[in-house]
Amino acid sequence: MLSGLVFIFAPFAYGSGDNRDIKNETSKKSIQKSLSAAEKEAELKKWEASPDGIQYKKWEASPTGKNVYASATKISKSIRDYTNMEGVVTSLSLPLGSRLGFGLMVRINSDDYILAFGPEKYNEFQQLHRLKVNDKIIIKSHSVLQAPKYSYPIVAGDYAERDSKIIYKRAPRKDGC
């Protein structure tokens, strides 16, 4: 009986020691030193001088870039406060060539936005596929993005409801962020 207990507990004790070592190595590797304000500023200047940075700055100053930023600013309070925004579906597809996953085009307060939900998985967007052009929906989001490739701000679809029924709610991330 004693040998049975040793046999049962020995692999458990050995295994937990290995896991602890692996976790410690992983956590040591994933810890990165935060950049100081001066280092961040230097990295930004370096990027702005790169071809991508120059192209982005040109887009930002263009009429299209200015319109995208103005539209994003109009909904920034709702984004920051995670409050309801009423939208009307204007298209069931995203602009040609977009690589944002599943999404729709919506009009919020007379401006057009890309409402992007991300890569499609299983039946996650089943109820969103039932939407039609001109449907009114309530949207909540934690972020709005701008990208030179698109003529519209990109609203991350975190929550959507239609006729007071939730049709989509993003699952919380497992890592807590």
SSE blueprint:
Blueprint: H1 2-30, H2 37-49, H3 51-61, H4 63-74, H5 76-81, E1 85-91, E2 102-108, E3 111-118, E4 136-140, E5 144-145, E6 154-156, E7 159-162, E8 165-169
Parallel strand pairs: 3-6
Antiparallel strand pairs: 1-2, 1-4, 2-3, 4-7, 5-6, 7-8
Helix pairs in contact: 3-4
Kindly describe this structure:
This protein is of the alpha+beta class and 177 residues long. It is 40% helix and 23% strand. It contains 5 helices and 8 strands. The chain has an 8-stranded mixed β-sheet with strand order 5-6-3-2-1-4-7-8. Helix 3 packs across helix 4. The chain starts with a helix and ends in an 8-residue tail after the last strand.
**What's the total number of strands?**
8
Could you give the order of strands across the largest sheet?
5-6-3-2-1-4-7-8
Estimate the strand proportion. 15-25%
* SSE pattern: HHHHHEEEEEEEE
Biggest sheet overview:
8 strands, mixed
Structural class: alpha+beta
Q: Give the count of helical stretches.
A: 5
Tell me the Rg in angstroms. 24 Å
Share in helix: 40-55%
pLDDT averaged residue by residue: 84
Uncertain ranges: 1-24
Shape assignment: globular
Give the end-to-end Cα distance, rounded to a whole number of Å. Answer: 48 Å
List keywords for this structure.
disordered N terminus
